[in-house]
Amino acid sequence: MREIITRRAGVLPAPDPILLADAALAPDDAHDRFASEVPALHAVEHRPAPVDRPVGARLRVAAWNAERLKYHAPSAALLRSTDVVLLTEADIGMARSGNRHTVRDLAEALGMGWAFGVEFVELGLGDARESQWHADEDNRIGLHGNAVLSRHRLLDPVIIPLDPGGTWFAGRSGNQRRLGGRMAVAARLDTPRPLWLVAAHLESHSDAADRGRQGERLVAAIDRLVPAGAGVVLGGDFNATGIAGSLEAPETAEPLFAVLRDAGFDWHRCNAPGPTQRTRPDGTPVPPFAKLDWLFTRQVEAEAPATIPAVDAAGAAISDHEVVAATVVTGVVAERSVAAGAEVEA
């Protein structure tokens, strides 16, 4: 297994295009050699929020698989009322999303800082649809990954690998060749009682047993990083294809939930029932839909769960995943200012 990545960078370096061209034509067993030569796979990009806001008694937390984060303005509008975003499937320098730094664009629009980790270095233009749509374009950088965005200060960001890497390079997941592997990004908020935030993305071309194993690796890493008694909010795309939408006994279809339950995580108070997929303008995917996207909490209370349609102002889908959100009670107590006679958050 790959080790937890703690190295930080203000800006991740772009991979060498010659190296990527060589990797695209290399034998299937050459993944680790090429991955070791891409610095962006071995650091977390960490940028502070523009204003250092103290954490309040409640945080609105959203988890969203933004499917490349292609639609900047409607994505910012969708997440405007959140304090923290646990983001998966975001691009940096990909033709399919306008060759933008989509995480930076979203964070700046929301007044947030971010911690971003590379899940995959893309060796092509994307999936079969994207390769056709952008056949006459080139990727400027080719990074794709997950992030934690926050209006409040993020500390100690890390990347947690969830598999050994190389599955997509070897072609076992179709024709979309990539360097890297599934992972989570974690960081903590600057609160009196530590509160950790984790954005995770589990494998889509796999099965329930493998997702359970990825969950075990994730829990083991969280237990290493997080002191006893500290709160954890975990969210993302868990690719739980065996669950149609019920919150009751999901572990019967997905062992991942038994792993998280036994590790002290709760999902009942931070998720609304129902599926989290939707059909894109191109007509895919088609029902029946599953509840792929979840929030989990440990040592922290949650309330007001919601599933938010991932659509623009005209009602058109901007991702094939809905946003899942909940309010987290941080434990930060409001103190009364005697002089002013008003409540302020400590």
Morphology: globular
Number of strands: 16
Binned strand content? 25-35%
What's the story with the biggest beta sheet? 9 strands, mixed
Q: Helix fraction?
A: 10-25%
Structural class: alpha+beta
Q: Can you walk me through this structure?
A:
The chain is an alpha+beta fold and 346 residues long. It has helices spanning 17-24, 31-35, 72-78, 102-110, 128-133, 208-225, 255-262; strands at 8-9, 44-47, 58-68, 84-92, 113-122, 143-150, 154-161, 178-180, 183-189, 195-201, 231-237, 293-298, 301-308, 323-329, 334-337, 342-345. The strands form 3 sheets. Strands 1, 2, 3, 4, 5, 6, 8, 13 and 14 form a 9-stranded mixed sheet that branches. It has a 5-stranded mixed sheet with strand order 7-9-10-11-12, with helices on one face. α6 links the parallel β10 and β11. It starts with 7 loop residues before the first strand and ends with a strand.
Q: How would you sum up this structure in a few lines?
A:
This protein is of the alpha+beta class.
Key traits:
346 residues, alpha+beta, nine-stranded mixed beta sheet, 18% helix, disordered C terminus
Q: Topology of this structure?
A:
Blueprint: E1 8-9, H1 17-24, H2 31-35, E2 44-47, E3 58-68, H3 72-78, E4 84-92, H4 102-110, E5 113-122, H5 128-133, E6 143-150, E7 154-161, E8 178-180, E9 183-189, E10 195-201, H6 208-225, E11 231-237, H7 255-262, E12 293-298, E13 301-308, E14 323-329, E15 334-337, E16 342-345
Parallel strand pairs: 1-2, 3-4, 10-11
Antiparallel strand pairs: 2-5, 3-14, 4-6, 5-6, 5-8, 7-9, 9-10, 11-12, 13-14, 15-16
